[in-house]
Design brief:
This protein is an alpha/beta fold. The chain contains 16 helices and 14 strands. An eight-stranded parallel β-barrel has the order 5-6-7-8-10-12-13-14, surrounded by four helices. Helix 3 packs parallel to helix 5, helix 5 runs parallel beside helix 6 and helix 6 runs parallel beside helix 7.
């Protein structure tokens, strides 16, 4: 059965009026010897794209899907066919999933594992037939009521053990399917109130959990990159992996910073009070940038709206950081995004991904041109030129004492600063966005 009536989506260029075409994403176009497809490494999120019904706290689901009326296991099997057809139609090489996305939970853990085994066998066969790859998988240790107090940070040791069993199973799946990464998102690893929380015990247990997972991965020979996905709030009032810097400090404390990198989501960055670029930049300069959940939040809404990325200002700055990082390595751009409730037709899944892929492709084009021109690099070089000679150079070389600096300041206390001309920089950035030369290659 075909679930999507469109032919394979083709690149038609920026002047095309065909909604079922790429305007900027040309997978074979090369930048510094790598194709767009190789740089962007797009992925489909199983949950938002094939299991979400578009419900929200104020209304039931609106999504209309061909598999809606099927039984749970038949629905799971249909989704396997649908996602691989979908990836073929959009020329997307990767996909991602939580365990509960691909197979329903059973009445027991044993039954749940049996359901997973049946669906994983179908997925593996499809991967072999199509060449599609698993960017990452993960365990959903937050939806079921057993995780009401958390998973690895739960006050109930039985829950800690259950969560560990799920991770063990999913690491086995990661090994079997060749997942290039394995993600930990602590959906309920946090607290509602410190009045009844032993934070030290919970953080220590979280570290113990991660170390157990790493030990098991080594035991079975799974070599994929471990990733942590930060989020500041929702569903708990305070998540332990609030942002990249906080999670980085946690990893350093527990000697895990050589094991993990970060899977950074744009909407989670804004919830943390940061820009998407800030989180990417912090991870990059600390060699911790692993992968990206590509979406955006709504500027007027204070929750995780998971919109498809269409803001080219944001995608350009994101691609600047990714290119300066030398790419994403084993990571990719996973569309952890869902159509709006009003975009409920099955075809909207295709259209939303076209929009997101084009937004990042355009961002890649602009960012690559800016890097070629050393645009930001020249601005920063001029701003910090006082550290290239004289007292500034001595500071960087650690050749001065506090007394040396005090003596220098006494003799040079008439200080002149230079304007940043920030508005001009932003205007020049706009010129890049508006004037990028797009050619068929």
């Amino acid at each position: 059965m075909a679930y999507f009536k469109q032919d394979v989506i083709q690149y038609e260029g920026p002047n095309s009026t065909n909604p079922y075409s790429f305007k900027y994403y040309n997978p074979n176009e090369k930048f510094d010897g790598k194709t767009m497809e190789e740089i962007l490494r797009f992925g489909v999120a199983y949950w938002h794209t094939f299991t979400a019904d578009l419900s929200d706290p104020f209304g039931v689901g609106t999504a209309v899907r061909d598999w809606d009326s099927l039984s749970e296991m038949d629905k799971a099997k249909a989704r396997v066919d649908a996602i691989f057809e979908f990836m073929e139609k959009l020329n997307i090489p990767y996909f991602c999933f939580h365990d509960v996305d691909i197979a329903p939970e059973g009445k027991t853990l044993k039954e749940t594992n049996e359901n997973l085994d049946e669906i994983v066998a179908l997925i593996k066969k499809k991967m072999e037939e199509t060449g599609k790859k698993l960017l990452w998988n993960t365990s959903n240790n937050f939806t079921h009521e057993r995780f009401v107090h958390g998973a690895a940070t739960s006050s109930n040791a039985d829950v800690f053990a259950y969560a560990a069993a799920k991770v063990k199973k999913n690491l086995d799946i990661a090994k079997e399917l060749g997942a290039e990464n394995f993600v930990f998102w602590g959906g309920r690893e946090g607290y509602e109130s410190l009045l009844n929380t032993d934070m030290k015990l919970e953080l220590d247990n979280l570290a113990r959990f991660f170390k157990l997972a790493k030990n098991y991965a080594d035991e079975i020979g799974y070599t994929g990159q471990f990733l942590i996905e930060p989020k500041p709030k929702e569903p708990t009032s305070h998540q332990y992996d609030t942002d990249v810097a906080t999670a980085h400090a946690f990893l350093q404390k527990y000697d895990l910073d050589d094991v993990f990198k970060f899977n950074i989501e744009a909407n989670h960055a804004t919830l943390a009070g940061h820009t998407f670029q800030h989180e990417l930049h912090y991870a990059r300069i600390n060699d911790m940038l692993g992968s990206v959940d590509a979406n955006q939040g709504h500027p007027l809404l204070g929750w995780d709206t998971d919109e498809f990325p269409t803001d080219i200002y944001e995608t350009t700055l994101a691609m600047y950081e990714i290119l300066k990082n030398g790419g994403l390595g084993s990571g990719g751009l996973n569309f952890d995004a869902k159509p709006r409730r009003t975009s409920f037709a099955q075809d909207d899944l295709i259209l939303t991904h076209i929009a997101g892929m084009d937004a990042f492709a355009l961002g890649l084009r602009v960012a690559h041109k800016m890097i070629e021109d050393n645009f930001f690099e020249n601005i920063k070089k001029e701003k910090y030129e006082s550290f290239e000679t004289g007292i500034g150079q001595k500071i960087l070389n650690e050749e001065v004492t506090l007394s040396d600096l005090a003596e220098y300041a006494l003799e040079n206390d008439q200080i002149t600063n230079k304007s940043d001309h920030l508005e001009t920089i932003k205007a020049q950035f706009n010129q890049y966005l508006l004037n990028i030369n797009i050619e068929d290659k």
